[in-house]
Amino acid sequence: MEIVQEQQLQNTEDRKVHDSHRNTSVTQQAQPQPQHPRFRKYKWWFRVSLYTIFVLAGQSTATLLVRLYYNNGGNSKWMTAFVQSAGFPVLIPLYFYLPTQTQPNNNSPKTKPKIFTLVSLYLLIGLLVTGENIMHSYGLQYLPLSTYSLLCETQLGFNALFSFFLNSQKFTAFIFNSIVLLTISASLLAVNAESESPIGLSRKKHVVGLFYTLGGSAALSLQLSLIQLSFEKVIKRKTFSAVLDMQLYTSFIATCACVVGLFVSGEWKTMDNEIKEYKNGKVSYVMTLFWTAVTWQMSCIGLVGLIHEVSSLFSNVIGSLALSIVPILAFMFFHDKMNNGVKCIALLLAVWGFLSYVYQNYLDDRDKRDGLEVPKSEVEVC
């Protein structure tokens, strides 16, 4: 009898040990295993590539659609500024596809920014977006599309200046060379203003378009540098939800400001006639504005994502690459003249300046790879 009891006790102990090992194994399987550095690097490159595609496809398509709006009878600057930010609701469904877990340090009261700070930040950047949108609207209406795109290349120079003061970006010989070339390119286009004025527009409006485009480029560069500074100093969250928050809230503020501008300027009174007189009809009018709004948001989420993953400087370089594609598309779809000698020289100088900037980014990236096994901006999607 005692032998039987001892055997039963032994069997019970064996089952407990077996269950303990089994639970430990299950627990270990349930815990997330650390990812290999090379796999994390590939994920980072995938995100950067995806954001780059968003910028290239979104910005070039949106610019062409705005030009199409003006060519077919559209005349409202505040409406085109409005659609540049009004497409933000298309990003809301992305929140439902984000995992619920967060990084532990993100919830710490010491690292979590105050509500007032965030509201002030989003308000400042949102109003800056409004100013940039309205200035670019004037530029797109008063300039040929190829001239507008070349002038927008100057945002690289503005970005170098703002990044130097706000993001501790160093000045190098290649960046200085890029700024000089882009400045000469813009100056050539300004001197050539009279011969490049669109049909039906005075030289005065053409010059106004030049200055508004330069102002819009400066505003965009300042906006990108401020966003990078916000991620580093205020938000301090390495998550994709932080990118969505930045784009959604600033776009909402910019949209509200554009609605106010639409009513204060009195342009809302002419909207009925504009829709009726639109060359391709009401459906074409609505669809042009709708897809303009969607593609602008596609471009913006790409720009903000590149700032988050890399830097405002790199984001601006990709945006400038998209602008370099626009003159070719404008020649194909809108028959913009590219046989003007001054414009061709300006295009070559802009491309040269762009390549100088890209090469400097390549050198910076190579230095980082020499010192780090994975990219510094490597983050987890949350």
Automatic annotation (TrEMBL):
It is a multi-pass membrane protein. Pfam families: PUNUT. GO terms for cellular component: membrane. InterPro entries: PUP_plant. The chain crosses the membrane at residues 44-66, 78-98, 119-139, 173-191, 211-231, 243-264, 284-306, 313-334, 340-359. Residues 1-35 are annotated as: Disordered. GO terms for molecular function: purine nucleobase transmembrane transporter activity; purine nucleoside transmembrane transporter activity. The keyword Transport applies. Signal peptide: none annotated. Belongs to the purine permeases (TC 2.A.7.14) family. This is Probable purine permease. It comes from Canavalia gladiata (Sword bean).
